[in-house]
Design brief:
The protein has about 270 residues and is α+β, with helices and mostly antiparallel strands. About 35% of the residues lie in helices and about 30% in strands. The strands form four sheets. The chain has a five-stranded antiparallel beta sheet with strand order 13-12-11-10-14, with no helix packed on it. The N and C termini lie far apart (about 115 Å).
């Protein structure tokens, strides 16, 4: 045998006899325990999370505003309870509420009825009107066509109120005026109290919270779409959702009327 071949065969034999001890491998049934507990020196998980999370935002002023509103309403109720006379509702021509208040106040003074007619109020609220995509805050009547009057009802005081220009009568049973109870008066005057509290609040969000969204659109109005894939198309309003600032309108596409769901800002009135 060649010496070189003998050396090669010896090496192969040595390699065949080599054993590598890997120890005992865990079987499928073996329990492998991993200790994930923290030592005393480790930082608790809660503290680690608190360092990575964003800091808590301070509580909003909604609760404070609600408290202020509740206090204002309670003060209103207390003030009403302390006043003499009954509250009545008089019906007026629509849009003449403030004029009736002025005229009635003047008549009470000129006719020496101040001891019987004590106070007149036009309940109001602050709202946001959307006209031609322009938002504007205005004050409007809560009860269009109605005015509150606190008075002692007599034949003379009734005649003074009834004969005031633009007054069409008292709200009641037939010719007999029916006074409001305290809860009804508070309910009618609450919107103006809420508006006053919101106006005194420092943040714009507080002011916007109590506002009511309205729009000068009406069902049947013709509008033009000014934004979106149907821009330039004329449509007719069929539904209005003031709370969601959306409307549904019919447009003619390929000879067929198709309803579209649009936002107020996507349309403008035609004409």
């Amino acid at each position: 045998m060649d010496p070189a071949e003998a050396v090669w065969r010896n090496r192969v034999t040595e390699h065949d006899d080599i054993e590598i001890d890997l120890g005992e491998l865990p079987t499928e049934e073996a329990d492998v325990e991993i200790d994930l507990s923290l030592t005393d020196d480790d930082q608790p998980v809660e503290e680690i999370v608190s360092l990575t999370d964003e800091p808590e935002e301070p509580e909003t002023s909604d609760e404070e505003e609600d408290d202020a509103t509740a206090q204002a309403i309670a003060a209103l109720r207390e003030d009403l309870e302390s006043k003499y006379g009954e509250w009545y509702v008089i019906h007026t021509y629509s849009g003449m509420e403030n004029r009736v208040k002025q005229n009635l106040d003047s008549r009470a003074t000129s006719l020496n009825m101040e001891d019987y007619i004590f106070e007149t109020i036009v309940p109001t609220e602050d709202v946001v009107e959307v006209r031609n995509n322009t938002r504007k805050t205005v004050t409007r009547c809560v009860l269009p066509g109605y005015v509150l009057v606190r008075m002692e009802l007599t034949d003379d005081s009734w005649a003074t109120v009834r004969h005031t220009p633009s007054v069409t009568g008292f709200v009641g049973h037939g010719q007999t005026p029916v006074p409001l109870n305290l809860d009804e008066v508070v309910s009618m005057l609450t919107p103006s109290v809420v508006a006053k509290v919101a106006a005194e609040a420092a943040t714009p969000a507080a002011k916007a919270k109590k506002k009511v969204e309205v729009v000068d659109f009406a069902i049947g109005d013709s509008v033009q779409v000014i934004d979106g894939p149907f821009a330039g198309v004329h449509a007719t309003i069929t539904e209005i959702s003031a709370n969601h600032q959306r409307l549904r309108a019919l447009v003619e596409i390929m000879g067929r009327e198709t309803p579209l769901d649009l936002e107020f800002k996507q349309v403008e009135k035609v004409g």
